[in-house]
Specification:
single chain, 219 residues, alpha+beta, five-stranded antiparallel sheet, 3 helices, 45% strand, elongated
Length: 219
C-alpha cells in the first residue's frame, strides 16, 4: 500500500512537471512582450496602413530565412532589387514594367527578362499580406522596438496562426511569425524578422545590372 502511494506521488509529480514544461514552452513561443492596447486598429485601418507601406519610396530590408539564406532588398522610386546570399537575384522596375531575374545552370548564368511586370495586390517587398484581408483578424497591441513604434496583429485559420509586426509610421512589415497547433500543443513556429532602414537606398543600389556576362533570354 505504501509503495503504491509513493508510485502515485511520483506519477503526479511527473505529470505536474510536464504541465509546467508545456506551459513555459507555450508562453515563450507565444509571448510578444508587453503590448499597449489603448488604441486598437480595425482590419480596414491596418490594410490602409499596409498599403501605405507598399508605396513608401525608399527603404532597405534584410532578413535570413528558415534555411539560413540571407536576403537583401533595396526599394527606391518604384524599383526593387533583391540579393540572395550577397548575389544579385532580381530587379523589378515598375516605371517601365521590366523584370530581370538571374538563374544559374551547371555551365552558365542566365538573365531572364520580361517587360510585362505588374504590381501584385497585397504585396510588400516580397512579403504577401493578403491573408490580412481573408482570415479572422485580431489586433494584439503595440510597443516600441528598436526605437520605433510597431503594431502586432494576428490572423487565424483553424489551427494555423500568423502574426505581422508592422512599423506604425510607414506601414512596412518588419516581422512575420507563423505558428501552428495540434490540439493544445504548438507544433511549429517560424519567424521572419526583417531589419528595416529608411531613406538609405541610392540610385546605385537599384541600378540596372550589367548583363554582358549572362546569357540573356527574353529581351
Amino acid at each position: 500500500m505504501k509503495t503504491r502511494k509513493i508510485v502515485l506521488i511520483i506519477v503526479l509529480l511527473i505529470v505536474l512537471l510536464l504541465i509546467a514544461i508545456w506551459g513555459i514552452r507555450e508562453y515563450v513561443l507565444w509571448n510578444d512582450g508587453k503590448l499597449q492596447k489603448d488604441n486598437p486598429m480595425s482590419k480596414e485601418e491596418v490594410l490602409e496602413l499596409l498599403k501605405k507601406g507598399e508605396e513608401y519610396p525608399n527603404y532597405y530590408i534584410s532578413f535570413v530565412d528558415s534555411n539560413n539564406a540571407k536576403y537583401d532588398i533595396y526599394v527606391k522610386d518604384n524599383v526593387l532589387v533583391e540579393y540572395y546570399n550577397n548575389e544579385f537575384l532580381l530587379r523589378e522596375d515598375y516605371n517601365n514594367n521590366e523584370y530581370i531575374m538571374i538563374s544559374k545552370a551547371t555551365d552558365k548564368e542566365v538573365a531572364g527578362i520580361s517587360h510585362s511586370l505588374r504590381k501584385q495586390e497585397y504585396q510588400q517587398a516580397g512579403m504577401d499580406y493578403s491573408i490580412v484581408n481573408k482570415l479572422e483578424y485580431k489586433y494584439l497591441g503595440e510597443k516600441e522596438v528598436d526605437g520605433r513604434q510597431v503594431i502586432y496583429i494576428q490572423l487565424e485559420d483553424e489551427s494555423a496562426y500568423t502574426k505581422f509586426v508592422i512599423d506604425k509610421e510607414t506601414g512596412i512589415i518588419v516581422n512575420r511569425i507563423d505558428l501552428s497547433k495540434v490540439f493544445i500543443f504548438t507544433a511549429h513556429k517560424n519567424e521572419t524578422k526583417r531589419e528595416l532602414k529608411l531613406d538609405v537606398v541610392t540610385d546605385e543600389n537599384v541600378a540596372r545590372p550589367d548583363l554582358s556576362r549572362y546569357e540573356v533570354v527574353g529581351e
